[in-house]
Amino acid sequence: MAESGGVAERAELSEDNRLHLPTGTDVWYSFQLYVPTDFPVVDRRLVLGQWKQACGDCAAGSQPGHRQPLPEQGSSRSPSRRPTKRVVLFEEKADIRGRWNQLVYHLKLTPTPDGFLQAWLNGRQVVDHKGPLGYPDDLDSVYFKIGLYRDTLPFPMTIMLGRFRRGAARAEVDPSVTP
User: Rounded CA gap, 63 and 80, in Å?
Assistant: First the structure.
């Protein structure tokens, strides 16, 4: 269901509260993504998914530990947000519209230096980031949200998601890996 508040619109699914993980958990995720060929490419905020820590002081407005935006002006960006800066970890130049794409993530969301994020797009590793992800003053609870999160726009957007998986090892989530 889409929510509209003038500033942002959301149509997203979130992991149930009982499935939240402790901060610093080594975890794998994968899902398939289909972006239709007529999906509008606009220069606006548009996010596909995000890993979040439950906020300690929600008024502080902590950003997600990691966000996965959709194509913006023909490229996919994978920035990591920290309290002081935004880091672009990956930018895809190829158009991902009109076909199913397999995304695989391996991460440890923690504000300590042993945090990391690795990502694969259609079997090709595109991110290998090491360093803090998350906030020391937020709660010890990490979860994933998936779906479109965007600035208000006068037209609809549609994506399709399939085969969402979460596991402790790559073989549990990545269909290209034989256990």
Answer: 9
**Which residues are 66's β-sheet partners?**
51
- For the chain, first and last CA: distance in Å? 37
* Chain segment 62-75, per-residue pLDDT in tens: 555 545 544 333 33
For residues 109, 163, 102, 31, the Cα torsion angle rounded to the nearest 10 degrees is: -20
Identify the sign of the CA torsion 73, 76, 81, 84: negative
Token pair of 161, please? 């998601």
Q: Is the pTM of this model over 0.85?
A: no
Q: How far is CA 94 from the centre of its chain?
A: 19
CA distance 96 to 173: 21
